[in-house]
Amino acid sequence: MTTISSSSSGSIASTGLGSGLDIDSIVSALVKAQTSAKQTQITNLTKSSTTQLSAVGSLKSALSTFQLAVATLNTADSFSGLKATSSDETKATATASASATAGTYTLEVDKLATASKVASQYVGSSDKFGAGRLTLSQGGSNYYVTVSAGDSLSTIRDNINKLSSTSGISANIVTDSSGSRLVLSSTTTGAGTDISVKSSGDSTLGKLAIDGTAAYGSSTGGYLVQAGDAEFKLDGLSMTSSSNTLDKAVSGVTFNLLATGSSTVTVATNTDDLTANIQKFVDAYNTMVKSISSLTDITTTTNEDGTTSTSAGPLSSDATTRTLLNNLRNEFVNLSSGSGTLQVLSQLGITSQKDGTLSVDSSKLSKGLETYAGNIQSFFTGSDGFLKRMYNAVDSYAKTNGILDQQTDSINATISSLKKQQTDLDDRTAKLTDILYAKYNAMDSLVAQLNATSSSVMTTLNALNKSSDD
Predict the structure, then answer these.
(1) Rounded to an integer, what distance in angstroms lies between the CA atom of residue 256 and that of residue 247?
(2) 3-state DSSP call for residue 192?
(3) Given 2.40.50, 2.60.40, 1.10.1740, 1.10.3470, which CATH number is that of 115-225?
(4) How far apart (Å, rounded) are the C-alpha atoms in residues 227 and 193?
(5) What pLDDT sits at residue 250?
(6) Strand pairing partners for 175?
(7) Boundaries of every domain in the chain
(8) What's the whole-model pTM score?
(9) Of 6, 84, 331, 343, which residue is the least packed, with the fewest Cβ within 10 Å?
(10) To 10 degrees, what angle do helices 403-469 and 319-333 make?
(11) Phi, psi (rounded to 5 degrees) for 219
């Protein structure tokens, strides 16, 4: 008798009672023999591809983080070789550019540069003006404001302010119990820049005429603050300036005058800020290198029994990663152009270690900052500066649609192909299982029938033999 059951593939399985064979085991073994090699290949490739996909994602993240740190540091202010400091920042501040030289300057401000502020005579709060034109003059430049019949003082103010972006003159109205006055202020400082206003057209506009060289009177317009030059002494030398920003007095140094009084400005090596920013770069680079190493290193471990085992990072054999690391290392030996005698990082005591990370010799760095103070800024942040080159060295890999994105697309395509292969293998396995069960079930049924026939024949023969004996 044959016992029938359903196989995992949906076909009719047999326990092999007719033949005495373990059909399930036979079918399973035959199917495995036909499919196990392909299944192992798909499983291994899927695992390695998924691991590699994750590794490429981690690599891109590490590169992007490094790029962000480099971009943040790649400013002229971050690597200014010299720094100007003031002994009294309420009196004056200063900044130093790459062309400055170290030195100390005594500054005594006697008078700040002033901008013109003028006012018209009193005007009635309800006064209206006839048609005409106002001409605002300052430092040889004229600005014209058209007045329409019936315009109020506030309308004229608004029309003046519409020109402020080009004229630098703004208007306001000041009102008290005696009436209103039109007040004009300028952003331009220096002697000879007083504001004057002339009127033409209707006689009512004459109330708005202002002589910027005459002091204000309630019945006549004039200046409230007269434009004037700054007067100061720099290292004992008497000087004047139309602006409170002095960018030509000392080469490479800009002084900002804030109040009258004395102060001392010192221009010296920007040691603290430079050291801090260089360390920020080193830290960012080392973090990136350590992340890459965790993905590429081959590690050998000695077990308790004395045997050794080796494990490799998911990108240990990846040619793209090796090329990236070589590009980064090349930037440390490529000579910098445009930064004078400072050409490589090692001149500042920054060197590469065996594991690829950077180390900083603080004493050599301090000495290097003093020696190359005038070249630091151009070396790091110049048009072809070190930071720009380091950024570019990883940009082709980390940018959108860059090398790593292309590699990611390729791995995803491989994973999709493996999923299709797995589906095809599953279908093949199911069909092969059905075919084998059909064949062995038929064989088992035939054996059962033959066994039944044999049993019937033997029963008949035994009966005949018994009758013959009787």
Answers:
(1) 9
(2) coil
(3) 2.60.40
(4) 6
(5) 95
(6) 180
(7) 55-77+272-300+308-404, 82-112+230-269, 115-225
(8) 0.65
(9) 6
(10) 160
(11) -100, -5
